[in-house]
Design a protein that fits this description.
Layout lengths: L4 H10 L5 E9 L21 H16 L5 E7 L3 H12 L3 E12 L8 E6 L6 H5 L18 E4 L1 H10 L3 E4 L13 E2 L5 E2 L9 H17 L4 E4 L12 E3 L2 E3 L3 E3 L6 H4 L6 E5 L4 H7 L3 H4 E2 L11 E9 L8 E5 L4 E5 L6 H11 L14 H15 L2 E8 L5 E7 L9 E4 L10 H4 L5 E3 L3 H5 L3 H9 L5 H38 L4 H11 L2 H6 L1 H30 L17 H13 L2 H48 L3 H70 L9 E10 L1 H9 L5 H4 L7 H8 L2 H10 L19 H11 L2 E4 L4 E4 L1 H11 L4 E8 L2 E2 L5 H14 L5 E4 L7 H15 L5 E4 L3 H5 L5 E9 L2 E8 L4 H11 L3 H11 L7
Parallel strand pairs: 1-2, 2-3, 3-5, 6-9, 9-12, 17-28, 17-29, 21-27, 27-28
Antiparallel strand pairs: 1-13, 3-4, 4-6, 7-8, 10-11, 13-14, 15-16, 15-18, 18-19, 19-20, 22-25, 23-24, 25-26, 29-30
Helix pairs in contact: 2-3, 10-11, 15-21, 15-27, 16-21, 18-20, 22-24, 25-27, 28-29
Length: about 950
């Protein structure tokens, strides 16, 4: 079965134009170099004639082909014939070898006593003759060169320009060693650049001046890159300076300087360069984006995981906006571009629907509730009768297919399949946790800043381990509610028990007094044997009842067969399905097991019935004894009317008392269960409060670290900080106290005007208040761990609160504890009111919910970006941001973040695509108002992609150039 393999192959094909990191060595020597270590195991000396060159080329090429590198530049000392020939041979074997030369260069004064090494690299098809044009005429022909020749007296900047003019790239070789340009610099006073002195050490000020002068010189010399010896050296050369009105920096590469094949194969010396095409042009383009395109072995980013590999939308009729759409996403930054109405938002909303996020659209708060209607309207207009397939690569690198057929009447239709087409048992994509994604459509980023609880949720994603605690807290809250419901049921049972027999339980005190009065020692002795027999009968009757309950329970289980109702699930079954079910029942031995269970159950029932029979016999014997003794008593008192009346009254009083005592026993059983549940409720409440404090501590400890992370992308004009008050978010509690009826004027006076809700809620949590009332211990009210500023809560309020709401008392007539169900319900319901830490984002010390949409967006973007590693999908992140913030902050966020998590954005802003150095750009267009297509896709390196960006996002090349002129910017000044 092919399943979805064809879809995966098509998506992989679409990823061929995505920029990825390649292993590159740009400074390697061949056997033609005088300092190359011999690669062929030949004892005799070799004459390096044409025949031998061919042999060596093939041997060397075979060795190179076996090495795990993607691009190699052969840069022999002052020679390039071997590299040119090898480059041509490599093209036939799909290996990229660039021709080049390591040049010995002696610059003009004051650096004329130094011999510097610089590397020139050229395109694959360059010949010996083309490359040698960069050399002065006094340099011998290649066949007469030894490799130790020296170019003297030329201006270095002019020579580098010559290399560029002839189509090459120029790299400062091993910049820090004795042949590197860094060693040629030392600044002394105002004398300008003089030779590096080995005598003595330079002062810190001299070092600073040397570094500053060297930095300016290297940035303006024209080098395309510089080589450093160690990974740690890179940090010393990651400069960004403004020179002649232009921001400049220089790429830093890791020096290989390989003198044999083993050196070339050393992966610790490889530079990782992100390219779309492994070729000279790809290298040249990559060097334009050193911050995002160049990495050393120690900082090569681990590919983000999980990721969305791609998306397919297929329409069954003319209603779908995309008739057939297949797009592949980069692991890093993918930008969806196109004119308005070309389907960018349709792709975002297709992802929303497939991941089941339509079900949470209601969470988009006022005043943006209309946003939910717009989302559903767009989906209905563009996705009706469409199948959406999302290929998702989970953390273990296995690919799954999320498939949904859009149905406007249903928010979730997604099923999950393996690549082979087997359905996985995933009932809910979102809650399964296997397919995380964060999606923000239209202006949704700005809406996050409107409510503090949503900010807190995002901040919590930056705190390791807090999700587990929050889930536990949610479980405790659910347990508290479950326990409340149990308690309510028990309280109802207590009330019903009190009402039985017209409330006869409340006459217990009366009945007990009546019986004690009649039960004189003489009468008591007369009824002793009867009372003993009645007690035995009561015990045996209770045993009989419990045994009968067990019999009834077993018989009830026998009413349902193991496979009862399963046949009805075979809706319009085929013969194949019927046969399968028949065979499965036999294979699982269901009839045999059913018969065995029935047999053993019947045996258990028979044993219990025998027990009932034996108990009945004993009860009957006791009844006979009671009847006999009652007859004897009647005979004894038959001649004395007074004694007869006393005996009968005592019997009647005993029966009344026993009825009430039976009610009291029932009541006591329920009360014991009630007390146990109250005790359990207290334990759960304590765990909930303790865990809330633990979560607060976690948040407080991470506050400064999170602020630092959020500000790494900020500008000088914006400072992001967190406001935090442990347990400070009690607005729900305050509102509850004010409006729910928990407090009322009859009991608590004008509590609103006297600010009882504010005072109470600022002094304790709902749990603390509930426990204080239930335990009748007002001093516990002030034991709140809250760091809030408390309003003064006087003792009178505490006393009145507890006195009016304490739910427990004692009924003297019935001699039982009682509970006021209305008061208890109030207390337990109040305890479930959610409180939390007050936590939110401040922008320049102002709460973002009070700021403009643009300010909210700028403050929320860093939080969204950093909060987790799941794929991030945003529709028009530049909404509500001015271009200055897009260029300064948003682009920085995306370029830094894309190596840690996958980002997919739909955008109209060229800064995001170009400055963000998008690895994949998907170009969309509209054929009509009701049909869109993907015209092309590829990285920002692709010329056709650049052309599309110019046309769609800049208004065309002419418009772009016109703006340059209008701004007074020449090509050289940009």
């Amino acid at each position: 079965m092919n399943g979805y393999k064809n879809l995966l192959e098509r998506l992989e094909k679409l990823k061929e134009n995505i920029a990825i990191f390649q292993k590159v060595v740009l400074h390697a020597h061949s056997p033609d170099s005088y300092d190359y270590a011999q690669i062929i195991k030949r004892k005799e000396k070799m004459v390096f004639d044409t025949r031998d060159k061919n042999i060596i080329e093939n041997i060397f090429l075979e060795e190179i082909k076996s090495i795990n590198i993607d691009m190699l530049a052969i840069t022999d000392h002052m020679k390039c014939d071997f590299s040119c020939r090898l480059s041509q041979l490599a093209k036939k074997s799909n290996k990229c070898i660039l021709p080049g030369m390591e040049i010995n260069f002696q610059p003009s004064p004051p650096l004329d006593t130094f011999k510097l090494h610089i590397i020139a690299i050229f395109p694959e098809d360059y010949t010996l003759e083309q490359i040698c044009k960069i050399l002065p005429k006094d340099i011998p022909d290649e066949k007469n060169r030894t490799g130790r020749e020296l170019i003297k007296g030329s201006d270095l900047t002019v020579f580098i320009k010559t290399i560029h003019d002839f189509g090459g790239l120029c790299i400062a070789a091993h910049i820090d060693n004795e042949s590197g340009v860094r060693k040629a610099f030392r600044q002394l006073g105002k004398d300008g650049i003089v030779l590096y002195s080995t005598e003595g050490e330079s002062s810190k000020e001299e070092d600073r001046q040397i570094s500053g002068k060297f930095k300016d010189w290297i940035l303006t010399s024209g080098f395309d890159a510089i080589e450093v010896a160690k990974e740690t050296d890179k940090e010393h050369y990651r400069w960004i300076s403004e020179i002649a009105g232009k921001k400049v920096s220089i790429p830093v590469l890791l020096s290989t300087n390989a003198h044999n094949a083993q050196d070339i194969a050393n992966e610790n010396r490889v530079t990782h360069i992100k390219m779309t095409s492994i070729c000279f042009e790809g290298l040249k383009q990559a060097l334009q984006f050193p911050d995002t395109r160049i990495r050393f072995p120690g900082d090569v980013p681990i590919p983000p995981s999980p990721i969305i590999l791609g998306l397919e939308i297929i329409a069954s009729d003319e209603k779908g906006f995309f008739k057939t759409l297949r797009i592949s996403f980069s692991d890093n930054l993918t930008c969806l571009i196109g004119p308005r109405g070309s389907g960018k938002s349709t792709i975002i909303e297709a992802l929303r629907y497939a991941f089941g996020y339509n079900r949470t659209l209601h969470e988009i708060e006022q005043p943006s509730a209309d946003l939910a209607n717009k989302v559903k309207g767009l989906q209905e207009a563009t996705l009706t009768n469409c199948v959406i397939r999302v290929v998702y690569c989970v953390k273990d690198r296995e690919n799954h297919i999320l498939e949904a057929t859009y149905d406007q009447k249903q928010d979730y239709t997604t099923r999950v399949f393996t690549i082979n087409g087997d359905e996985r048992e995933v009932h809910d994509v979102e809650t399964s946790g296997l397919y995380p994604m964060r999606l923000f459509g239209w202006s949704e980023i700005e809406t996050l800043g409107r409510e503090a609880h949503r900010q807190r949720d995002l901040i919590d994603r930056l705190i390791p381990g807090i999700n587990v605690k929050l889930e536990q807290l949610s479980d405790f809250r659910s347990s508290l509610a479950d326990k409340r419901r149990n308690i309510e049921t028990l309280v109802s049972n207590l009330s019903n028990t009190i009402l039985r027999n017209n409330g006869e339980i409340k006459r217990y005190k009366e009945y007990k007094a009546d019986f004690d009065l009649l039960n004189t020692p003489v009468v008591q002795q007369l009824f002793l044997e009867i009372d003993t027999a009645k007690t035995k009968e009561k015990i045996l009757s209770e045993l009989k009842n419990k045994t009968q309950e067990r019999i009834d329970s077993l018989l009830n289980t026998m009413k349902t067969e193991l496979f009862e109702g399963l046949d009805e699930l075979l809706i319009d079954p085929s013969e194949t399905l019927k046969n399968w079910w028949s065979e499965t029942k036999l294979e699982l031995k269901i009839p045999d097991i059913e018969a065995d269970v029935r047999k053993k159950t019947n045996q258990a029932v028979d044993l219990l019935k025998d027990l009932v029979h034996e108990v009945d016999i004993n009860i009957q014997k006791l009844k006979e004894i009671i009847q006999k003794k009652e007859t004897e008593i009647r005979e004894k008192v038959s001649d004395e009317t007074a004694k007869q009346v006393a005996a009968e009254r005592r019997r009647i009083a005993e029966e009344r008392l026993q009825r009430v005592q039976e009610l009291k026993r029932d009541y006591k059983k329920i009360w014991e269960q009630f007390e146990d549940n109250i005790k359990n409720w207290m334990e759960i409440a304590k765990k909930l409060a303790d865990l809330s404090d633990e979560i607060s501590d976690k948040r407080a400890r991470r506050k400064e670290e999170i602020e630092s992370r959020l500000n790494q992308f900020g500008t000088q004009e914006m400072k992001i900080s967190l406001r935090f008050k442990s347990g400070g978010d009690r607005i729900n509690f305050e509102n509850y106290l004010r409006d729910s009826g928990f407090l009322n004027r009859d009991l608590h006076g004008n509590y609103k005007a006297n600010k009882w809700p504010e005072k109470i809620s600022s002094n304790y949590t709902p749990i603390e208040l509930a426990k204080a009332i239930l335990l009748k211990k007002p001093h516990q009210i002030n034991k709140s761990t809250s760091l809030m500023v408390k309003l003064l809560l006087d003792n009178d309020i505490e006393k009145r609160l507890i006195d009016t709401l304490f739910p427990f008392s004692h009924d003297d007539d019935a001699d039982i504890p009682i509970v006021d169900s209305k008061k208890l319900d109030k207390i337990l319901e109040m305890a479930e009111v959610v409180w939390n830490d007050e936590e939110g984002i401040l922008l320049n010390n102002r709460p973002v919910e009070n700021l403009s949409p643009g300010q909210r967006s700028s403050a929320m973007l860093p939080l969204i970006a950093l909060s987790e590693d799941a794929p991030l999908v945003i529709d028009q992140p530049e909404d509500n941001l001015d271009n200055r913030l897009v260029g300064k902050m948003l682009v920085d966020i995306l370029t830094d973040l894309k190596e840690k998590r996958q980002i997919i954005v739909a955008t109209h802003n060229p800064n995001i695509v170009v400055s963000g150095d998008a690895e994949q750009v998907i170009v969309l267009d509209a054929l009509s108002d009701s049909e869109g297509i993907c015209t092309q896709s590829g990285s920002i390196d692709n010329k056709e992609i650049i052309k599309s960006i110019l046309e769609i996002m800049e208004g065309g090349k002419d418009a772009f150039i016109a703006r340059q002129h209008r701004y007074g910017l020449s090509n050289s000044s940009i």
